[in-house]
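Subject: sequence -> structure tokens, single chain

Hey, anyone have a minute? Need the predicted structure for the following. Not urgent.
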Amino acid sequence: MVTAIEKTALSYTLSDMDEATGIIKLSAAMAEELGRAHFSFSGTVCDPLVYAWDNYEAFIRLSARAGQKVLFLGMNPGPYGMMQTGVPFGDVMMVRDYLGIPGDIDMPAAQPENKPIVGMKTTKREASGMKFWGMAASYGDPESFFSAAAVLTYCPLVFIDGKRNVTPSELPLSDRKTIDSICQGYLERMMDILRPRKAIALGHYAEERLRKAGIDDPVYFPHPSPRNPSSSAFWDSGEALVSFRRILDEA
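Reply:
Had a minute. Here:
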């Protein structure tokens, strides 16, 4: 579990590690810092990097590797995706059947009252994950996809207020500043490890964070969330896959 990984891991020279190990150590340290942070948000805050660490680590070991041309950056976990499975855009069936990550999670003590965490037993589908990993599957098997692209989430925290999933951009300004004061630096260090030639922002929030990280020309893809209905044509028509292939050819 993440709590067993000492913060002093960051004193190691990350460039001497393989990409997956470097990302894992940075993720562990980020989770520890976020766990000590104070938020004015009055709802429930969940961190899958704590209770779903084993699945997250398995995903990073599968997905982070040398020579990837493209980085996809998402915003934060969805309530039926990464919040349940520990995997970015982690629709449970895509996690099991496409990515081949079958492990379950440790149920957290703090549960959102109206959106319970049931782990890999969830019967609800994550629409964003179905679209994103559906695009990846259309490109090829996981080995082919991850040879070309990495996938990261900017902020691993989930914010639930009653029945509502609150995105980082909707949080109070003080909470947004807290998130950025921690997550931005880790994003930049992860990008230093992966060194992608192109970065694809999944939504405007991710686009802003990539620009803040010094990427002048991130590629914008509309976020595949059902809260963004205008994105359906881009993802459902195959345009996302066509655009991804074009970006790979140009990178």
